[in-house]
Specification:
heterodimer; A: 283 residues; B: 267 residues; four-stranded antiparallel β-sheet; binds adenosine-5'-diphosphate; binds magnesium ion
Chain lengths: 283, 267
C-alpha cells in the first residue's frame, strides 16, 4: 500500500521526476550546438579585437571592431554612395527573392519531370550538367552582352546559380522514392495525378527543401558578382565600391550584413523544414 | 474467382543470364478461402504475388479475376507488404483512408470508414497517431485496414508477419482469422513458416525453387476449426497437424536435398 502510494507520488511530484532517457542518436540528430557556436563567435570576436588592439595587422587591412561598429552606424544614418542602407538592402533582397522564386518555380517542376520522364531527363540533362559547374563569374560577361546592365542580367545570373541545386535535388527526391510505396498506392487505385500529388511530391519534399536551402545560399554567394554589373544599389555593390576606396571598414559592414541575412534565411528554411516535413528521418 | 493459369516468369539476372523465377504455376482462389503459398526463400512466391497484384507482367500464362484479365494494379486487389509502406506524413486514419481518397470519397465518410476499420484491427484509439509512433505489429495492422478500406475482392499478403516477433505474430494470425471470418474476404498469403501456413490456410500450396514451381496442394481445415472453437492449443497439438507438418517439411526440403546429392556425385 505504502509502496503504491510512493510510486504514485513519484510521477506527479515534479521535483522527483524520473530520469528521462532516449536512444543514443547517430550523427548529430538534434544535438544542441548553439552554445558551442556562440562561444566560437565570441572567441573570434575576441581574437579580432586583440589582433587590432595590439596592431598585429595594419589597420588598413583589418579595421578594429569599434571602427566597424561606428561605420555601421554611420551607414545606417547617412547611407553609402548616394543611397540609404535600406535602399542597398532592399535592392539586394529584391534580386535574391525574384531569382529564388523564378529558380524554384522552374527548377522544382523541371527536376520532378526529369526524375519521372525519359524525355525530360534526356533533353535537359546535358545542358544542366554542362552549365552548372561553371562559376557565375565566368558567364557574367555574356549576361552583360546579351541582357545589358539593368536588373534583368543580375536576376538571370542569380537565377542560373540557384536553379541547378534546386533542379538536381528535386530529381534526387523522385529517385529516393521507394517502389513499394508506389505499388501500394497503385493497388489502392491511385491515378497518375493522384500518385504524383499524394506520393511523389511529398516523398520528394525533404530533398526539395534541402535544394532550396542550398540554392539560396548559392544566391547570396553570387550576389556580389551579380552586383558587379554596373549597379548603383545593393549590398554587393556597396562592398565593391568601398573596396575601390580601400574603405575596409565599410567592406566589413557589408560582409556582416550579408552574413546576417544568409544566416537568417538558412535558419528560416530550417524552421520551414521542421514544419513541412516533421517526419524526416523518422520512418 | 481468381484463376492463375500456367503462369511463367523469366527475369534477366545482372550478368545477363535468364532466371526462371516461376514455372507454369496454376492456382484457383475461390470465395471465402485462404490460399497460402509456402516455400523457402527465392522459390518465386513474391513473383507470383506481384503478378497477381499486377506489378509484374507474366512471360507466359494468364491471370483472371472474376473473368477479367489482370494487367495492372487496381483497387480490386488489396496488397499488404512485408515492409510497411504507410505514408509517414499522414495520420493512421488518413493512411487507412488513402484508397477511399483516391476513389473520391468525401472526408467525413472517409473518417468514419477508417475508424470502423481501425476498430476491426483493434486500433481504434490510434486514429490520430502517426506511423512512426506505432510498433511493427500495429503498423502491419494499419496496413491490413488500409488494404481492406477499398473493399477489394481479394487480399494479397506477402510475408506480412515475417518481420514480427513470434508473440506478436501469433496475435496477428488470430486477428487475420477474425478479419477473414468477419469480412469473408478471400486471401492469398505468402509465408516460409510451415506452422503459419497450416494454421492460416484453407489451401496450402508448396513451392520449390529453380525454377519456382508449385509442387503440392493441400486442403486444410485448421483455420475453420480455429474460427469456430478458438482453441490454438488443441489445433497445434492435433495429430493431423503434426502429420501434415512433417509431410510438408519433407516436401520443402526435398528438392534442395536432391540438388545437394547431385552436386556431391558430380564432385
Ligand atoms: N527483378 C528481378 N530480377 C531478377 N531476378 C529476380 C527479380 N526478382 C526476383 N528474382 C529472382 O527470382 C527468384 C524468385 O524470387 P522471389 O519471387 O522474390 O522469391 P521469394 O519471394 O519466394 O523469396 C529468385 O531467385 C530471385 O533472385
Ligand atoms: Mg519474397
Amino acid at each position: 500500500m505504502t509502496d503504491l502510494a510512493r510510486s504514485g507520488s513519484r510521477t506527479s511530484d515534479p521535483a522527483d521526476r524520473p530520469k528521462i532517457v532516449r536512444l543514443h542518436p547517430f550523427g548529430l540528430d538534434g544535438a544542441r550546438t548553439g552554445p558551442i557556436s556562440l562561444a566560437t563567435a565570441l572567441l573570434l570576436l575576441a581574437a579580432w579585437f586583440l589582433a587590432t588592439h595590439f596592431r598585429l595587422v595594419p589597420p588598413l587591412f583589418l579595421p578594429t571592431p569599434q571602427e566597424v561598429a561606428t561605420q555601421f552606424l554611420a551607414v545606417v544614418e547617412d547611407g553609402y554612395a548616394g543611397a540609404t542602407l535600406w535602399e542597398h538592402l532592399s535592392a539586394s533582397l529584391f534580386r535574391i527573392f525574384s531569382a529564388a522564386v523564378i529558380a524554384a518555380s522552374l527548377g522544382i517542376p523541371l527536376g520532378l519531370a526529369m526524375g519521372l520522364n525519359r524525355w525530360a531527363k534526356g533533353v535537359f540533362d546535358t545542358p544542366i550538367e554542362f552549365y552548372w559547374p561553371l562559376p557565375p563569374l565566368a558567364y557574367l560577361p555574356l549576361m552583360i552582352i546579351w541582357l545589358g546592365i539593368g536588373e534583368v542580367s543580375k536576376i538571370v545570373l542569380l537565377t542560373l546559380a540557384m536553379f541547378a541545386p534546386v533542379c538536381l535535388s528535386a530529381q534526387a527526391g523522385v529517385r529516393s522514392l521507394p517502389i513499394e510505396r508506389v505499388n501500394a498506392a497503385l493497388s489502392l487505385g491511385a491515378g497518375r495525378w493522384q500518385l504524383f500529388r499524394t506520393i511523389v511530391l511529398p516523398s520528394a519534399l525533404p530533398e526539395i527543401l534541402t535544394g532550396l536551402r542550398i540554392g539560396i545560399g548559392v544566391g547570396w554567394s553570387t550576389l556580389v558578382a551579380a552586383e558587379l554589373i554596373a549597379a548603383t544599389r545593393g549590398i554587393g555593390f556597396m562592398i565593391m565600391s568601398a573596396s575601390h576606396f580601400l574603405a575596409t571598414d565599410v567592406v566589413f559592414v557589408g560582409i556582416g550584413i550579408i552574413a546576417a541575412f544568409a544566416f537568417a534565411f538558412s535558419y528560416g528554411m530550417r524552421l520551414l523544414e521542421a514544419w513541412l516535413v516533421p517526419w524526416k528521418g523518422k520512418s | 474467382m481468381l484463376q492463375v493459369r500456367n503462369a511463367s516468369v523469366f527475369f534477366s539476372a545482372r550478368d545477363g543470364r535468364v532466371v526462371h523465377a516461376l514455372d507454369r504455376a496454376s492456382l484457383d482462389i475461390d470465395a471465402n478461402s485462404i490460399v497460402v503459398a509456402l516455400g523457402a526463400s527465392g522459390c518465386g512466391k513474391s513473383t507470383l504475388l506481384n503478378a497477381i497484384a499486377g506489378f509484374l507482367p507474366l512471360s507466359e500464362g494468364s491471370i483472371t479475376l472474376d473473368g477479367q484479365p489482370v494487367a495492372s494494379p487496381g483497387a480490386d486487389r488489396g496488397v499488404v507488404f512485408q515492409k510497411d509502406t504507410l505514408l509517414p506524413w499522414s495520420s493512421v486514419a488518413d493512411n487507412v483512408a488513402l484508397g477511399l481518397r483516391f476513389a473520391g470519397v468525401p472526408g467525413r465518410e472517409r473518417r468514419e470508414r477508417a475508424e470502423e476499420l481501425l476498430g476491426l484491427v483493434g486500433l481504434e484509439s490510434f486514429a490520430d497517431a502517426f506511423p512512426h509512433e506505432l510498433s511493427g505489429g500495429m503498423r502491419q495492422r494499419v496496413g491490413i485496414a488500409r488494404a481492406l478500406a477499398t473493399d477489394p475482392k481479394i487480399l494479397l499478403m506477402d510475408e506480412p508477419f515475417g518481420a514480427l516477433d513470434s508473440l506478436t505474430r501469433e496475435q496477428m494470425q488470430e486477428l487475420l482469422i477474425d478479419v477473414w471470418a468477419r469480412t469473408g474476404k478471400r486471401i492469398f498469403f505468402i509465408t516460409h513458416s510451415i506452422e503459419e501456413a497450416l494454421f492460416l490456410g484453407t489451401t496450402v500450396v508448396v513451392m520449390s525453387p529453380r525454377p519456382g514451381r508449385i509442387v503440392a496442394h493441400f486442403d486444410v481445415d485448421f483455420v475453420r476449426r480455429f474460427a469456430a472453437e478458438r482453441d490454438v492449443r488443441a489445433i497445434l497439438s492435433a495429430p493431423e497437424f503434426a502429420d501434415l507438418y512433417d509431410e510438408i517439411r519433407s516436401l520443402v526440403h526435398r528438392p534442395q536435398a536432391e540438388a545437394e546429392s547431385r552436386r556431391m556425385v558430380l564432385q
